[in-house]
Structure formats: structure tokens, C-alpha cells
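Internal tracking record. Fields below are filled automatically when a chain is submitted to the structure queue. Please do not edit lines marked as system-generated. If the sequence contains nonstandard residues, flag them in the REMARKS field before resubmitting.
Queue: standard
Priority: normal
Entity type: single polypeptide chain
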Amino acid sequence: MKKIIVFGFPHCGTTILRSIIGHIDEVYEDYHEKKEVNKNNIIPPHKKYHLCKFPFTMNDFFGKKYKDYIKIFILRNPLWVFSSLNKRFNYRIPPNHSLPVYIQTCQHFIEKQKTINKNIYFIQYEQLFDNSYEKLKDIFNKIGFIYTDDIFDNTKYKNYKSDFVKKIPEHKVDDKKHELYRTWQINQPFKFGNSLEKIDLRKNQIDKLIHHPSILKLYPNIKNEIDFYIQKHYPSLSPSQNTKQNIKQNKNHLQIKLSFQKRIQKQKQLQLQKQKRIQKQKQLQLQKQKRIQKQKRIQKQK
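SYSTEM-GENERATED OUTPUT FOLLOWS
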């Protein structure tokens, strides 16, 4: 049995990615957050893969200890990572979730891609949803998974954050109840979640995020993405409205905002098309059942 570990940094998509992979029939999913698969689990014989996830990136993951693991390394734009962490910890982010740890994770993400290792796959959260999950499917195909597009439809599955939650909340839970809230969250539609209105950062966070070279290498447009937020909440950080530089930034921000809106609109269109297909399938199934019932009545009459 092949072992798989998903890792990255907190609030980067490790849990939802683990859940999506866990939808694949030949994958056995561990719900706990540990650095290794649970060897004590009783696994059905038809399962070919044993999956676990850990929300942090450890040096050991790239060494001999994990040489027999398939590794999937995921990272997310820090604007949304730290906005989410601010919300969870009320702006008192613990040291192991801090910006220096995130930057170290970025450096791993950049450097490890320079080494040739067929068992490590890299993906950014923002790439999960592009072109109907194209890059994610490419990783799955390289690993050798057998699956259908149904795995991307959360309505067909029950996703669990950990072994501590036995029942999935039917409605949104207060985010202070972290385990329940995250369980509710990963059972929502699998779609892009980096909306502009979710950004919520402190001034000192912004200054560090938009100037570090490792972050800029992975997210070169981060200054343009945050510009609208700076102008609204911290105008002192924003350049003069009359400068050519600011005009250019405003144009870039508008383009990015339009790009987000187009992506959301496209997702809604795809979702609507999918609902129509499902409805059509139900209608065909109903027609088929009616034909079968009619045939049975004719046979009884004979």
C-alpha cells in the first residue's frame, strides 16, 4: 500500500485537499493531523493508498524517512492565509503560525522544486480550481489515481476534519468552535475562496507581506491585490492619488478585481450547468421508470 501525505501551512487548503483525495475509492483517509499514517488502522483490502495530512512543513518530509511517501505540498496566498488566521486567533497569532514560519515554508516550496523528485507534487491553492481543476487532475493522474469528476462534488460525500467530530453540522457554526466550524467549512462546495472582501490585515502584517522576496517570487501581484485594501484602511501607506504609479496600481487592481468577478461568475455558470445536467438525468431516469412500469402493466394484461 502506497502512503500519501498532504502538507503545507495552516489555512492553505491542506484539509480540503485531503478530503477531495479521500473521495477517491481506492484511498483510505486518516482524519487525524499527524506526521505519519496511522499504522494501527484496519484498512479494507481494496484500498491502494493510505492518506494523511499535516498542516505544517517539516524538514523530515524531504529526507529518507519519507522516501516511500507520495508528498503533496500546497501553499496559499498569504493575504488570505493571515486574514483567516487573524479571524481564528483574534489577531493574536501563535508563534508556530507566524509570518516567519510561513516565509520558511515559502522558501521550502521554491527550493524543493529545483530538485528532481518524482514523489513530490507542488500546487498553490489558487491553482486548484483553474480550468476545471486541471492542475489538480494532472497531479492525480501522475500519481495513478482512478477517479471521476464526482470527487469534486462535496454534496456526494461526508467530510470530517478530525476523529473528534462525529456529526457534520447542518448550518454554519461559530468559528470560535474551531473543529466544528472547519468540519462545516470543508463540506461546503469545493470552490475558490480568495474573495477580496475576506482580506483583514494589520498594518505591520501588510508591510512584511508585500516586501519579502520569497513571497514576491510566488505571488508577484500581491502588491496590486492588496492596494485597494490599503487605500481603504491605511491610506498613509498608499501613494498619492495623483502619481502615475498609483494610477497604474488602480488599473491593475481593477483588472484583478474583474478577474475575480469573472472567475466567480464562471464557477456559478458551471454549477448551474451541472445542476441542469443532474436534473436532466433525473428526468431521463423517471421516464425510464415509467416505461418499465408500462411494460410490466402490458405483460400483466397479456
